[in-house]
UniProtKB/TrEMBL annotation, chain A:
Transmembrane segments: 12-34, 46-66, 72-93, 100-121, 127-150, 162-181, 212-234, 246-279, 291-310
Pfam families found in the cross-reference section: BPD_transp_2
Swiss-Prot/TrEMBL keywords: Cell membrane, Membrane, Transmembrane, Transmembrane helix
Segment forming the signal sequence: none
Subcellular location: Cell membrane
Protein known as: ABC transporter permease
Coiled coil: none
One of the record's GO molecular function terms: transmembrane transporter activity
Membrane topology: Multi-pass membrane protein
GO (cellular component) term, any one: plasma membrane
Amino acid sequence: MSTDGYSSRSAALWRSMGFAALLLVVLLAVNLVLNPARFHPAAWGALIGLAAPLIGAALASAPVILGGRGGIDISVGPTMGFVNAIVIQALFLKAGMSSPFVLIPAALLTGAAIGAINGFLTTIVRIQPIVATLGTYLVLTGVTLTILPAPIGPAPAWLKSMSGPLSILPLAAIFLAWWGIRRLPYYDQLMAIGSDDRAAYTAGVPVTEVRFIAYVITGTFAGVAGLMLTALIGSADPNIGATYTLIAVAAVALGGVSLAGGRGGLLGAAIGAIDIFLLQSVLTSFNVSTYVLQIAYGAILVAAVILTAVQERAAKRERA
Amino acid sequence: MMAKLKTFLASTNGRVFGAFVIAALLHLIGTLAIPGYSSPFAIRAMLVIAALLAVASIGQTLVVILGGIDLSIPFVIGFANVVAAQLYGDGWNFVLVCLLVSVMAALIGAFNGYVSRKLDIHPLIVTLGAGMVVQGCVLLWTKGFPSGSAPSAVSAFVSIGGSAGPLPVPWLVPSVVVLAALIILMMARSPYGRRLYALGSNPGAAPLALIDPVRMWVITFALSAFFAAVAGVLLLGFTGSAYGDVGQPYLFQTIAAVVVGGAALVGGRGSYLGTIAGVLVLTEINTLLIGLGFQPAMVQAALGLIIILLVSLYGRERHVSATI
């Protein structure tokens, strides 16, 4: 990390998410032209609600990736689905609990517990992160399908009302939490480990603990994302959650977070997720078949990471 | 004695050995718990399913040793499956069809390898994006309803009821055994194999030994896509008709097989023999759990638990203090 003044820091910020931010502006403009009614500023609240689970999933995926050495949590999607099933099926419908003061802590604790399990497996048992979280991925999707074989509803009224403009609240809560974390020494330790864990270890950074906590943070954020998903669909569905995993990782990469760790941040991840959401919306408004949608989607994803990489290389050459 | 055993299990050979032992143990449990588990038909079915997974996992093994990962395998399997059926149904010569599908698959893989290495982008993203484009193109071409079928020769080649001369298994099984021997030989003895391990274990030093990283990545990812295409055509014979999503279960299964077989996803370590052991373990677990009457959802959950359990037994990484 560079600490030699504001200008180099903002330059680094531009290098890492400049492309994603540029794409955001372009896509927003295209969307406004193509579909003025849907993208009228008055409708932005509803749009944020639609994008919220994806943004949440991307935000949740970021901390462990920042921690480096192959850190990744592919169980983020299934965690969201599991939280969705627990909150609606087990707590609301079976046990009759509808109070936000029960459901919100329950969702956060479930997420944090799954994160702690992932953290235990990857940092203490020391299984490669993609394998460990693949294991929890399979377990969570299996268990979710067992407690909830088919979609069921409804969600409590207060939770459903969070699907529109109010979905900014959980997103703001995640950002506020991250803002707090960035003010702690913990954040610098995480980024140091992400850049070079061996150097960080010799400098006395407790590598295992820091990585473990990153998984708990990811799990907790995934719990929040699960609540946002529940609010959006207003019911419980065992099959939706898992679809968020890969798209969230793609959003994180698009937002300039290095999958090798140590570079990027949650703002970039959020911008990457919004890019993907806007892209989906542009493609849908062209009224093309879902097949073309998928082609364009994959192509733009690859093109975006290629352009980001080319730009980074150019920037490196400039400095050299 | 215990310490010796522990160092043996920590070595690559030990991991491979461990995986084979676990596969044998699982088979023993199955035989004791489920009547007919070791009946000739059940064993034949398991061998065919394992052989298909073994072919699909060749590429993942090579790519993982190189230090990458290939998420495009399921999409390329689906691509080969649908395109081969469609073209053969349109009256093309099947040899020509296979040639065309192989070349196209290899080009997809070469693109993955080139972009990932040359621009230093994580292959996870590149292969996922490329895979989605490939699948979208196939869907667009067939309008979502693939038609056509496999020539009867391919069906007979993989049919569970088939026999290879005096052997009571279809030709697929001995062919995969020979193929596996060739792959193992290639990885251990050929210059390509040496370069693969060298580049995987030390990407910084390998170029100094005149190993061209970009070329290695292009070749290896092309090989991975090629074998995925082979698996796709074989699956066409196995299921009888084309299906674009036929490869989806192979996304996580190939990774799991490679890892259970003792490879490290950071590269430089692993072997195809290990992957074969991993394939056997996964096939045994699947058959055992279904035989015990678990629902598919619970089979999946149990599979996840067992992968974690196995890898924590012998697939543990070193502590960061041991890497300095």
